[in-house]
Amino acid sequence: MRALFPRLAIGFAAALLAAAPAAAASAxxxxxxxxxxxxxxxxxGVWTNASLTSLERGPQFKTLTIPEAQAQQVxxxxxxxxxxxxRPSDPNAGAPAxxxxxxxxxxxxxxxxxxxxRIAGEVRTxxxxxxxxxxxxxxxxxxxxxQDTLMKARNTFDGPEARPLGxxxxxxxxxxxxxxxxxxxxxxxxQIQQTVDAVVIVVEMNHDxxxxxxxxxxxxxxxxxxxxxxxxxxxxxDTLVVETTGFNPGESLRPYFGASLYxxxxxxxxxxxxxxxxxxxxxxxxxxxxxxxxxVWKAExxxxxxxxxxxxxxxxxxxxxxxxxxxxxxxxxxEGRKPESVELSE
Length: 346
Hints:
Blueprint: H1 4-29, E1 45-48, E2 65-66, H2 68-85, E3 118-119, E4 122-124, E5 128-130, H3 140-155, E6 189-194, E7 198-203, E8 208-213, E9 230-236, E10 239-245, E11 253-254, E12 261-262, E13 268-277, E14 280-288, E15 297-305, H4 317-334
Parallel strand pairs: 8-9
Antiparallel strand pairs: 1-6, 1-15, 2-4, 3-4, 5-15, 6-7, 7-8, 9-10, 10-13, 11-12, 13-14, 14-15
């Protein structure tokens, strides 16, 4: 028996030595975020969150993830719809009937994405991961604040200050500027730039530049709210953690068709940016807004690498559309009519 133990020890050592190169190779295969000149994880580049996936889960989906085959069916259906909309117009169709909506942008200008969101190979049906049902957890009073503000924006044409920010070319419609940064109908690009003491996110929609302070992270006075809030950041390993408070009350309503969002001026948004591959940043965020929501809600989405450059966003709404909207309201009033309520896209 004594002679057996040395042979077992030698065999065990040989097995360890044989396994060591494989283990090392496996460790080397794990992707590591590159570092920039300041030693920070490199997040720089042009990224997009364009996707068929949205913040809340649609009624056709019952789970957070779905099989790849089902996602491809959804994507194929969307492609067929876009192809139909891209067909040439009928030159003999004539003008729309009086009072009929002539439509806005045609599909040439629409770029919401062609695929559902995928994180670590999983197809996501919503960005929301908490609550588990994929729905925003509004308090009754929070839902009322949202609805009241939305109806006021839809029906108030007294002057430019009453109109939504997108119509005034201040911020993009929806919550594209963020935080949180949400995908919308088009212009879903972001360019991230880094210095030793700040990270700047240039938002394509209205070319807003959001500055995240890394060194001087003292709380700024609450009586000076800012568009996109006041953002401070820190590095936790390979993750950039950003906390934002101090939102301007004028951006509480972030309207986008049927996927509008409401945040009170006292909301706190915490974001986490982690580069998980050469072509993707995992963007996670949570919203703490007890005046509006019953609980903190959490979401995650991929920011996918995109070829630049990001072209300047020319916002003609403020130049042409807003005077037209207000002039139309004055004409309606002069004729004894009430300006029509519209489904807000901006």
